[in-house]
Amino acid sequence: MRLSSIFAIAGTFLVAFILCLFAAGFAVGVIEESSRNAVRDTLDEAGMTWTEVDADGLQVFLAGTAPSEATRFKALSIAGTVVESARVIDQMLIEDSADIAPPRFSVEILRNDSGLSLIGLIPASTDREALLDDVRKVAGDETVTDLLETADYPEPETWEDALDYAVDTLDLLPRAKISVDAMRVEIVAMADSDQDKSNLETQLARRLPDDVRLALDISAPRPVRTPFTLRYLLEDGAGRFDACSADTEEARDRILSAAGRAGLADKAKCTLALGVPSPEWATAAEMAIDALARLGGGAVTFSDADITLIAAQGTAQDRFDDVVGGLETNLPEVFALNAVLPRPATDEPATVPEFVATLSPEGLVLLRGRLDSARTRVTVDSFARARFSSDAVNMTARVAEDLPKGWTTRVLAGIEALAFLSNGAVTVTPDEIAVTGNTGKPEASADIAALFARKIGETAQFDIDVTYREALDPVASLPTPEECEQKIAEVQSTRKITFEPGETTIDASGAEIMDDIAEILKQCGEIRMEIGGHTDSQGREVMNQQLSQARAQSILNELRARRVLTSAITAKGYGESRPIADNGTEDGREANRRIEFKVIRPEPIAEEQTTLEALEAEAQKEDPAGDNAEAGTEEEDTGDEQN
């Protein structure tokens, strides 16, 4: 055999060997890549993104740190469904249980007409029975449902303060959702009116502990007017509303504009309310007020879809017929008009029976005039004593005959109207009921008009001359926290609280200033306020901070000595950290040595609107313990944001 043939055969075998080697390597790479990708994708779909996957030949390696032993075993099982279990090599670690974050403790208190429910996770150290006893005392006859779970972890520092505050507010919230966190309380509730909303927000803020943040979402739905009432009077070219209701802002603007054309000079309030009998309410009100203006005087009263128009005495019959005829023709279908033209006055003297009820500023009630029977006299006296204090009522009315039909009903309605006043009088005659006086209730005129329309009928004539006085309103007359802060600042603008050098006792001139500040705070009631102590930069920083804290506390003690409510007032020393002037000059240092009074304002937190019914339904479907146990710790800064 020739040498060339041997080399040819050897070369062929060598080429074949190299090709086989490359083919085997390529096949192994494909198997590794497909195994790694398949296992990786399957684990990702199962939510185990913490795993690390690698492959070497037929072997698949799993690495990473599993949250628990059960999770590690689950990862191995999932990988075993993709490749043979014998090919899976476990190189995973288990997370140290000491590093696992404690659960987020929280409680949701849901309260509505169906009862009261507590849902959430609380620390094992919380006295659960005492908590439920406190809630049951507030709930009374309401059903209390306990859906709380416990976890044996240390409770956060401010947990008890937040939980106690939430329970303490339940007496103010008949329908609410209260979410309690360690450092925050969120309240979603509903008030009957804008004024009730403002009062509720003030009371909730005043009860708030210093170390807890408050988020408020209190809604005030439109009131329901039954009957839906409007009453406009035009006398001697001057118009006024005794009551005004509208269903939309556009309707309110149209009604007020019509009143402006009919002699309304002063600013009037028209309440947006529910219960309108027709979408054409504004159209009918405009027409009726315009008709009253063309008549030149009188009164128009709406009670739902019934309209009573009473012309001024002396109105010409032909003018009355023309105006009323046009109004009847153009009114929307649902509305019914009753028009009255009073009889002309005569010169013949006549004795007009009357009943008069007066209420003095001291709360004394005098009932005099005429009643139709002794039995009615007892009824009226009992009704008045039920409305007012029994010792405050003095009855001098006499029994008389020939009184008009419905006299007793009109008298009782008049006494009921008197209860809306702080002082004043109600006069009942056969032709009308007149109410005059002062009140601390902003809606008194509208409420009295609605009362008369409901009790004595839409066609009855009545005159309401009630003046709202803020000084009689127990809530409106109370200065706002901002006004109190401003008054104290005005006192300090001309005089300064000073101390003996390096001491915490105020000097002789400071006592008079403290007397003035104490009087202001007594007028303000209970408000959340901080007394801040500040120093200049001379001396050591730590010593300055301690001195400022001691001086602020000394001011708080001075207020307590003057019988000021201080449960919501705190003292805090800032040392030299908040200068307001240059510490390099004597004048600047003198300005920096100061005491400041500042109102602490809760910071509202935007929150998703949720109905109580939806929350209760969701709570019944889910496991509150599981949800709370897996929730992370939420940290929030409650420091300077409230100062």
Fold topology:
Layout: H1 3-45, E1 52-56, E2 59-63, E3 65-66, H2 69-80, E4 88-90, E5 93-94, E6 106-112, E7 115-123, H3 128-139, E8 144-151, H4 159-168, E9 176-180, E10 184-190, H5 194-207, E11 213-219, E12 229-235, E13 238-243, E14 245-246, H6 249-261, E15 271-272, H7 281-295, E16 298-303, E17 306-311, H8 317-330, E18 336-340, E19 355-359, E20 365-371, H9 374-387, E21 393-395, E22 398-399, H10 407-418, E23 423-428, E24 432-439, H11 444-455, E25 461-468, H12 481-494, H13 508-524, E26 529-534, H14 541-561, E27 569-575, H15 586-592, E28 594-599, H16 612-621, H17 624-630
Parallel strand pairs: 2-4, 3-5, 7-8, 10-11, 14-15, 17-18, 20-21, 20-22, 24-25, 26-27
Antiparallel strand pairs: 1-2, 6-7, 6-9, 9-10, 12-13, 12-16, 16-17, 19-20, 19-23, 23-24, 26-28
